[in-house]
Amino acid sequence: MGKTLADKQAMVTELKQELSKSQMTLVIDYKGLTVAEITDLRRRLRESGATCAVAKNTLMRRAVDGDENWQSLGEFLKDSSAFLFLKDDLNGPIKAYQDFQKVTKKSELRGGVLEGKALTFEQVKAIGDLPSKEELMAQIAGALNAVVTKIAVGIKEVPSGLARGLQAYADKDGSTSDEDQAA
């Protein structure tokens, strides 16, 4: 027995809510995946802050209808579709999906949508290859720390250099006086 109209409307509402919370949405072909494999994918995605929903393409078409940010999802809606909703971190969930795909070799990424633009498989893969937010923050912190360290060493060197210069002058001046007294 199929879903009732109320069930379908509730699913469309859920899809709209997921889209409104997402920065990026990916569409995968999940044909051939077992329930255990879909569960594994959902677990992997949850760990990286993303979610996965399996829905009929017609329901997703209704969810994106009239929404300029997500309307380009329509070009990926064919056959069996599952939707990955990426919220804050983009490359973590993409890497999690790629790891899952390497293990199962059953699903296929059709594409995705980011800021209203359709992305091909290659473009999504390129985003997944970028460093994570944490890695970028660590790189920036390291660069800032290096600059601060150089400034601190430079500032410390000013009085030390001045002291060495004064000492050299005093030594030079003192050795001249000793020579004058010996003569």
Automatic annotation (TrEMBL):
Q: Which PROSITE patterns match?
A: RIBOSOMAL_L10
What biological-process GO terms show up in the record? Answer: translation
What is an example of a GO molecular function annotated in this UniProt entry?
Answer: structural constituent of ribosome
Q: Which Gene3D superfamilies match?
A: 3.30.70.1730, 6.10.250.290
**Cellular component GO terms held in the UniProt record:** large ribosomal subunit
InterPro entries xrefs: Ribosomal_uL10, Ribosomal_uL10-like_sf, Ribosomal_uL10_bac, Ribosomal_uL10_bac_type, Ribosomal_uL10_CS_bac
Name the UniProt key words of this record, in alphabetical order.
Answer: Ribonucleoprotein, Ribosomal protein, RNA-binding, rRNA-binding
* Keyword Ribonucleoprotein on entry: yes
Briefly state the protein's biological role: Forms part of the ribosomal stalk, playing a central role in the interaction of the ribosome with GTP-bound translation factors.
**What's the subunit arrangement here?**
Part of the ribosomal stalk of the 50S ribosomal subunit. The N-terminus interacts with L11 and the large rRNA to form the base of the stalk. The C-terminus forms an elongated spine to which L12 dimers bind in a sequential fashion forming a multimeric L10(L12)X complex.
Family, according to the entry, reads as follows: Belongs to the universal ribosomal protein uL10 family.
PANTHER family given for it? Answer: 39S RIBOSOMAL PROTEIN L10, MITOCHONDRIAL
List the HAMAP family: Ribosomal_uL10
Protein's UniProt name: Large ribosomal subunit protein uL10
What gene name is given for the protein in this entry? rplJ
